[in-house]
From TrEMBL:
It comes from the Bacteria. This is AraC-like DNA-binding protein. It comes from Naumannella cuiyingiana. Keywords: Activator, DNA-binding, Transcription, Transcription regulation. Pfam families: AraC_binding (PF02311), HTH_18 (PF12833).
Length: 263
């Protein structure tokens, strides 16, 4: 497993990744950013879509809106890819106004050489340390091309705002409590049984309560590590039992160690 990360000094909301994987490396997870990936070699399978697994081949570009649960793992043999994570509001500000609906609300797989070339160009610009103007110009060109491309796969789906509103107190506790909240107490707090709560959280977020909590903690860990916080301090502040536990959960979500991610 090889992973290399680069953050834009000019645009702190932009991060690029180059990776090579040979075995399953990701559990189902979601990002709080808009994500765009390009397959460089090999093939992979994306799970988490209600439409079933999506198979990606070299040259494919996939876009994943913030909050959409997915897991992308090698299909057979080595798999090499690049990922770009950007603030979703920043992406919306650069995308054509007519494109923000589909582009930022649905998982899309595009098989178009022009899109592949532009995605690679944006990743290369980030790794090369391009300035803000050059990076934004490349991103805008990519989003404009995506807006005109007919996706090979389109996985729509809007969150259930009413259900998320009812679950908000539970999700707040899952995110912020240092110790694991008792499932029964969480369910009682919003008038559900534990079984009803598990089903409701999965329906609203795509994850069980425990999996959602782990994902939320790893998203916060990534923010803290990007800011230069020590690994041990990050693990302690987020309530992990010890650094070993933190490493295992982090690797399952990010497919690399906290140290390699922090750089």
């Amino acid at each position: 497993m090889v992973a290399e990360f680069r953050r834009s000094a000019a645009l702190p909301q932009v991060e690029a990744r180059r990776s090579r994987q040979e075995r399953d490396c990701y559990r189902p997870h979601a990002h709080d950013d808009f994500s765009l990936g390009v397959i460089e070699a090999g093939s992979s399978v994306v799970t988490g879509s209600p439409d079933g697994p999506l198979r990606l081949a070299a040259g494919d570009v996939i876009t994943i809106p913030a909050g959409r649960v997915h897991a992308c793992n090698p299909d057979t043999g080595p798999w090499r890819y690049q990922m770009i994570h950007v603030d979703q509001e920043w992406a919306a500000s650069l995308a054509p106004p007519t494109a923000t609906g589909d582009l930022l609300a649905a998982i899309r797989v595009v098989r178009r050489p022009e899109v592949t070339a532009l995605a690679r160009g944006l990743a290369e610009a980030i790794f090369a340390g391009a300035d803000r103007e050059a990076t934004e110009a490349r991103a805008a060109a990519l989003f404009a091309e995506l807006a005109t491309a007919t996706p090979a796969h389109l996985v729509a789906g809007e969150p259930d705002a009413e259900l998320l509103g009812r679950l908000a107190p539970v999700l707040r506790r899952l995110r912020s409590d240092r110790a694991n909240p008792a499932l029964g107490a969480l369910a009682d707090s919003i008038g559900m049984t534990p079984y009803q709560l598990i089903r409701a959280v999965r329906r609203a977020t795509g994850l069980t309560p425990l999996a959602w909590r782990q994902n939320a903690r790893i998203l916060q860990a990534r923010r803290m590590l990007r800011a230069g916080r020590p690994i041990a301090e990050t693990a302690h502040e987020l309530g992990f039992v010890d650094q070993s536990h933190f490493h295992r959960v982090f690797r399952a979500h990010v497919a690399t160690s906290p140290g390699a991610y922090r750089g």
